[in-house]
Amino acid sequence: MTPQVPSGSRHSFRFGLPPSLGSETARERAERLASFLQRALGKLVEVNVATSYETLAKDLLSGRADAAWAPPFVCARMEAMGVRVLTRGVRRGMSSYRSALVGRAGSGLTLEKLKGASAAWVDRDSVAGYLLPSAFLKTQGLEPSRAFVSQQFTGSYQGALEAVLEGRAQVTSVFCPPSSTGLTFTTGVEDVLGPGMGAKFELLAYTDEAPNDGVPVAMGLPAPLVTALETALLGLQSTPDGQALLRDIFNADRFEVAPRMGYRALYRVALASL
C-alpha cells in the first residue's frame, strides 16, 4: 500500500490506538486523550481504537489516521515505507523491553513440555505478544505451528492471560522490563491484570529485547502540526493529568524523541517468526 497524504483542508486530527490492552479499556480512556490533544493541537480530535494491529497500520498508510500509538513491529513497517516515528515510550528509564513466556502457576509446564500444548497470543504483529516468543521458540527447536496443538489470537494481553488462567490455553506471553532493571515478568502481568495477579503465573523463559512502542505520524502531515504533537507528547510528564495519560493509555513514564530508523532491527524478529 502506498502511503496517502492527509487532506490539508481537514480540520480534525485522528489518532489511533491499538487493541492490545483491551478495546473496552482503551475506549474508556480515548476521550481523555482526545481532550488533551484537542487543547494541545487546537483542532477537533478523534481517537479511535483499531480492531487489530494490521488495521492500525492500514489506517496510518491510507491517511485515515494522522498519528497512532503503535507497537514496535507496526513502527518498523511504517519506517520501511518512509513514515516517520515521532516519539517512543520510556518505561522505568528504559527504551526497550522483552517478552516472557508464562504458564499458569502450579501447572508444571516447562519449555521441554511445550510440544502438544495450546498457546494464546495477542496478535500476529504483536512483538511481545507473539513475534519475540515465536522467534525464541524457534531457537529452541520448537516451531510453533508444529509444536502447539492449537494457537489462538485474542487481540489483547488481557485476553491471552485470561485464556491461560481459565484453562483455554496452557502458555502465553507478556511484555516485561529488560533484565537490567532487575524486574520480573510479574510486572507485565500486573500492569495488565492488576496487583497480585503475577503470582498466578510462572515463568518459562525470557526472550531478547525490542524497542518500545512509538508514535508514527502520517506522511504529509503539516510540519507545524507534527511539531505541536511532538511537544505535547514530550511534555506529558510535566502535569498530573499528563502523567495519568502516560500511565493509563501508554503504559509509559514519559516520551522521548525516537531515533531515525530505530526499529529496523525488528525485521529480523519478524522474519524469524514466519
Automatic annotation (TrEMBL):
Gene3D superfamilies per the UniProt record, alphabetical: Periplasmic binding protein-like II (3.40.190.10)
Entries under Pfam families matching the protein: Phosphonate-bd
Transmembrane segments: none
Recorded superkingdom: Bacteria
Bias (Polar residues) ranges: 1-10
Signal peptide coordinates: none
Renumbered residue ranges of the record's region Disordered: 1-22
Stated name of the protein: PhnD/SsuA/transferrin family substrate-binding protein
